[in-house]
Specification:
The protein is mainly β and 881 residues long. It is found in: Cell outer membrane.
């Protein structure tokens, strides 16, 4: 009997975890402001109740307070789980937690401009009570899964008045949200609630709005997207006055520039002064300098993703503008109100009309000669809504640059002989782009969105000349010379792509898809013929070969919020390239990591591998524009790069200031260039593969960026410390040398100040160390024998330059100040915009190129610098209706 009593007491006193628990187990807890995970760990430790759950499905980070004494376990779990959308049940000796389907729902739809119906890219949709949110994709679509009892959503976007959207029911639903532009509500104080930098996994990314682009000081009256991108750390502008970009030590062909998803191969007008992107049709610009998402591929150094406006769904309006050398127009409106919209822009320069007579006199072209140079471009986009789940977009771009010089004149012989000559020369230079895109958006369900794209792009280039020289008064023989030449190149591609956005829950944002691209290359056809009195007709053609290649890719990426402080972006981009019977396969992993440090600083890390199957060949030995786009072949492999980056980022609590610091290292393989001392015409022959060499490249450095985003006074400060190097087996004796776009230090300062409601001032100052330069370090005279019948010493002396190491010298440092002022006035339905800008305010003579010139007094050659852009004032006037 005594033994049974003792056994009963023992069973009562032993800790409960030795034996199985049940729902009547009494729980005592007193915890304040602890994560749900910590509360479960406490129960498990004290009572031996083992919990099982997935942090991907069940949100365990929400903080709670609980104070219970001898309360049944079932009641405790109800208190903990009912408000967190969690279901619990017993399986064996485990207490399993899962997300409750009955208390969550998904809200999805589009965020758009309340006035025009334009879809807003990157708008924030957020549940303040549940602390979950998302952003719209590049088509303005969002999907947010939150608790069924969520009462409202907070929606915000730069330049728009934030809105609180009430949720009246508790079911899954499509909800299209319309935001009012802040400039239509001038008395409303706009406070932006955009995602803080520390909340984003993505690093090495810059987002530009059209308003930022149009606030910048303008060159010759034209606002320019690429020139604004040049003011960002890590981005260099190349030669003075050009709008091209070089990102983190890369070459121009290593930039993937997309216009509504279609690649643009040449982005410049007027030999690089302006870009081909008319700011009137641009809605959004994203620049990726590294940490490339898996959905992008095909280039090594950067991605510039430009989205065009959709057009106003409800009203007709537009804008016309006139500047110093170009005019432009834009018109948009509904085709069927609320269903179909369009937008059309056009732009043309009239420099040929203004400068024709002046240039004709300066170049001595003769009475029948002429000169003109102009560009034009046009964009159109049509947007149609078939149903709440289906939309169709059709966009097109076309642009052309043309320059022509005709010289037609008669003159006497220079040595005074009684001969008259008639000289005729014609020179033509032209290039242009075409880009077409058809996109279909479809919403499968509130969590799955798709986009199907079919596009076509081409770039062509042509230069040709004819020369005729005829002696008019030779009695017996009419001396003559007749030459002509042509150089042309073209690249085309047609592509089909399918992309999916899937958001199973607020912790995961999954993107996946695939693409197939058909490339056609015509890499530089050269034709030359010549005939003279003492020579037979020479008619030569080179490189009529057309090469084709097929590029295929698949990708998947997951932006995964592991915990509130830990965010991970995992992805892979797999691509293949088939050309001339050779197949290249590339697997490119992508990784982005973010961890929240104390004081809400974000530590970010990224790793990415990229592959590029096309090359741009540039002949440094000639000033003729003979660049060629060519494909990787069995002899010339694709380029590869690996880039790692580490950085810190933070947005202040009031959202006014952003700061980021990044360090990066990038290695490149199979970068190519022409062999040294290449003849100008050999580069265009069919054996271009034998005329190039391939080697390695490296770039590394650090970037600092500080931006003020709110208030009447705004702007940013950027600093770049960078190295960019190349190495080729047969160049510079195999030694590493600085790449031609290597700049050690760059500083960019951009400031804007709003004065009242009508005036806005802007200023931009840039500084950079000079680019590398190769010049002769010595010379000697060599006697050339004009005839085999004369002694060698009776020939003509010629000077031969000695060139040693490549890029050992540096150009002069470059710095420049630009300022601008914009006045805006509204009268009724019309808005008048006047912009006055001053380029190179203090007339700094920045180098364009260097050459040796003989001094007439000392008869010695001296190094001479040429600068082409002095102080340039400009005025543009626009009327918006």
């Amino acid at each position: 009997m005594m033994r049974k009593v003792l056994l009963g007491l023992l069973l009562t006193w032993l800790p409960l975890q030795v034996f199985a628990w049940n729902w009547r187990t009494r729980i005592s807890l007193s915890l304040h402001d602890q994560p749900l995970s910590a509360i479960c760990e406490k129960i498990e430790k004290d009572y031996g109740i083992h919990f099982s759950y997935s942090s991907d499905i069940v949100k365990m980070s929400r903080r709670m307070s609980i104070d219970v004494d001898e309360m049944p376990l079932r009641r405790v779990m109800e208190l903990l789980c009912s408000e967190n959308g969690i279901e619990f049940r017993r399986i064996g000796d485990q207490l399993v937690l899962t997300a409750s389907k009955s208390v969550t729902r998904t809200i999805s739809g589009y965020v758009e401009d309340a006035v025009t119906g334009e879809k807003l890219i990157g708008a924030t949709v957020y549940s303040p009570t549940r602390r979950v949110g998302t952003t719209t994709n590049q088509f303005g679509f969002y999907s947010l899964t939150t608790a069924r009892d969520t009462l409202s959503l907070s929606v915000s976007y730069t330049g728009y008045v934030p809105a609180q959207i009430p949720l009246k029911d508790k079911e899954n639903r499509q909800l299209h949200i319309r935001l009012g532009p802040s400039n239509t509500l001038q008395e409303v104080e706009v406070t932006e609630t955009l995602p803080r930098l520390q909340e984003q996994t993505q690093m090495s990314k810059v987002n530009l709005s059209v308003s930022q682009v149009k606030k910048m000081p303008r060159m010759l009256g034209e606002a320019d997207v690429l020139r604004t991108i040049q003011t960002m750390p890590g981005v260099s502008g190349g030669m003075e006055g050009t709008s091209g970009i070089h990102v983190r030590g890369g070459s121009p062909d290593q930039n993937l520039i997309l216009l509504d998803g279609t690649p643009v191969y040449n982005t410049t007008h007027l030999l690089g002064i302006f870009s081909v992107f008319n700011p009137d049709i641009i809605k959004n610009v994203d620049l990726y300098k590294g940490a490339f998402p898996a959905r992008y591929g095909g280039r090594l150094s950067s991605v510039v993703d430009i989205s065009m406006k959709d057009g106003d769904m409800y009203k007709y309006h537009g804008e016309v503008a006139i500047g110093l050398i170009a005019s432009r127009m834009m018109v948009e409106g509904p085709v069927f109100k609320g269903k179909t919209s369009f937008i059309l822009t056009a732009r043309r320069t009239y420099a040929d009309l203004i400068l024709s007579d002046l240039t004709k006199r300066e170049l001595k072209l003769g009475e029948n000669g002429d000169f003109f140079a102009y560009f034009y471009d046009a964009n159109i986009k049509v947007n149609h809504i078939f149903s709440p789940k289906d939309r169709l977009y059709l966009s097109a771009y076309g642009g052309e640059d043309n320059m022509r010089l005709n010289r037609d004149m008669q003159f006497d012989s220079i040595n005074g002989a009684a001969k008259k000559y008639h000289e005729q020369m014609q020179y033509r230079l032209g290039w242009g782009n075409q880009a077409y895109s058809l996109r279909w958006n479809h919403i499968f369900n509130p969590r799955l969105f798709s986009n199907v794209t079919v596009n076509y792009s081409q770039f062509h280039f042509i230069t040709d000349y004819t020369y005729k020289h005829l002696a008019l008064d030779t009695p017996a023989i009419r001396e003559s010379d007749n030459m002509s030449g042509k150089y042309l190149s073209r690249v085309q591609n047609a592509a089909a792509k399918m992309d999916f956005d899937y958001k199973p829950n607020p912790r995961h944002a999954v993107k996946f898809g695939g693409q197939a691209i058909w490339h056609i290359f015509e890499p530089g056809v050269t034709k030359f013929n010549s005939v003279s009195d003492d020579q037979q007709l020479t008619d030569t053609s080179y490189n009529n070969m057309i090469s084709k290649g097929v590029e295929m890719s698949l990708y998947a990426e997951d932006d995964w919020k592991i915990r509130d402080s830990v965010h991970l972006n995992l992805g892979v981009h797999t691509s293949g390239f088939l050309v001339n019977g050779r197949f290249y396969l590339s697997v490119q992993p992508r990784l982005g990591f973010r961890y929240i440090l104390p004081r809400r600083w974000a530590l970010k890390l990224s790793f990415s591998k990229m592959t590029q199957y096309i090359h741009l060949l540039t002949n440094n030995a000639t000033f003729l524009p003979t660049d060629l786009w060519v494909a990787a072949t069995d002899k010339v492999p694709p380029m590869y790069s690996t880039q790692v980056a580490l950085g810190l980022a933070k947005t202040t609590n009031d959202g006014k200031y952003e700061f980021s610091a990044e360090g990066y290292y990038k290695s490149m393989q199979n970068v190519i260039e022409y062999v040294e001392n290449l003849d100008n015409f050999n580069s265009a022959t069919s054996s271009w593969e034998s005329q190039v060499i391939h080697g390695r490249g490296w770039s590394y450095g650090a970037e600092l960026f500080l931006q003020k985003k709110q208030g009447n006074f705004r702007g940013w400060l950027g600093y770049t410390l960078a190295w960019s190097q190349r190495s080729f087996p047969n160049v510079n004796n195999g030694r590493i040398f600085p790449y031609k776009y290597d700049r050690r230090h760059e500083v960019e300062v951009v400031l804007t100040q709003r004065l009242g409601k009508r005036w806005e001032l802007s200023g931009q100052w840039q500084y950079s160390t000079g680019m590398p330069l190769t010049l002769p370090t010595g010379s000697y005279e060599q006697i050339t024998d004009p005839s085999p019948h004369l002694p060698p010493t009776t020939g003509n002396p010629s000077q031969v330059d000695l060139v040693q190491d490549r890029n050992t010298l540096r150009m002069q440092e470059v710095h420049r100040l630009d300022i601008g002022a914009t006045h805006t006035k509204t009268r009724g339905a019309l808005t008048f915009i006047l912009n006055i800008s001053l380029y190179n305010v203090y007339n700094q003579k920045n180098p364009f190129f260097y050459y040796y010139k003989r001094n007439e007094n000392t008869q010695k050659r001296e190094l001479t610098m040429t600068s082409i852009l002095p102080v340039l004032p400009s005025v543009s006037y626009a009327i918006r209706f």
